[in-house]
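Hi Y.,

Following your request, here is the sequence exactly as I used it, all 372 residues.
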Amino acid sequence: MKSWAVWLLLCVGLLGSQSLRADDTVIAKTDSQVKSSVLPQKGATTFDLAQTILPLSAGQFAVGRWDGSLQLWDLPPSRSNQGPTLRSVSTLPSRAGVLSLVKIEEGLVLSSHDQGSLALWTQTEGGFALRSIVEFPSQLGAVTSGALVSVGTQKVLLIGHESGFVSLWQKTRWSLAWLGQTDVRSPSPVPSPYALRHIRAVVPWKDSLVLVGSEDGDVTQLRLRLVAHGVDAVVIHRARHSPTAQRGINGMALLGDLLAVTSCTVGSEPNLHLLRVEPGRLVPLDALELKRDSQREQVFSFAVLAVDRPSGKTLWVSTQEGLVWQVLVVDEKLRRWGSVSVSSGVGTALFYDKERQLLVAVGHEATVLRVP
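Below is the corresponding structure, written out as tokens. Let me know if you'd prefer a different format.
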């Protein structure tokens, strides 16, 4: 073999051996990196699902969400093909989710804030401006519902808390004045795996009587009365919304003396109940299971609206399946009329604009339904 050929073979061999050694180093280094690599770990998630909705004047409404945002929306014209328009977004200083909204008077709105305070907001043309933070005993827990109640010539604010207590307030020139608190917890709560006491509904009835619905399963009648130190609330009656209930109350609405109550279907347990309200008494009348997927073990019903329309007494109910059900009340009985899909498998907050004949459902998205 010629010398140049030998020299070429030696060069190729050396290069090859060096190349192999370099590749081996790269592979070893890569294997070491793979072995030491760690996947990103999931931290926290922010949910923007709507928890509460509040109709306002001039075709506007407010939405409180789990992410702590308070939104102002404009309704579309009644005959347009548009959805609602988001006008502004404000954020709770506490960054807690907005559990409840209450209209105190024109231009003044109350929201939940944290475990020991509520927030007052002034509504301006462009949105909401924080007016003040009002503190209360932290053992009461966050504000979960509320309503204004007439007591004689006075207006009293009755607020429900997550502890199962209600608190009473009176509006002052610039803020709210504390009047007291009342324990409305059930002595025998429903056998639910969710040991909650949240007051989910405060519904004024008549003659200073108020109906309070709790996640412990009871509907409680309170009588508000004037006393020497102001106003107090006395429990005059309580009843379980269903004798076989396994979950608590999520919402309530009145049609005259008829009370609609939403809960959760577990097995064959209904999630919509109808009761007749009498002073010191609640009379069960009827119940329905609002569930499309029969294979689901449980389906929560959330918001309920009650409207006395020319065509008859109507209930609209939002459920965990992302549906809004229409139910008619005929001769004190519930008649299922049908359902409309409005969201992707979540419950929605509801309100009805009578002037525009629009039913609004807000979950992650905001949807308007035209009511014929």
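The CA atoms of residues 203 and 284 lie 18 Å apart.

Thanks again,
Q.
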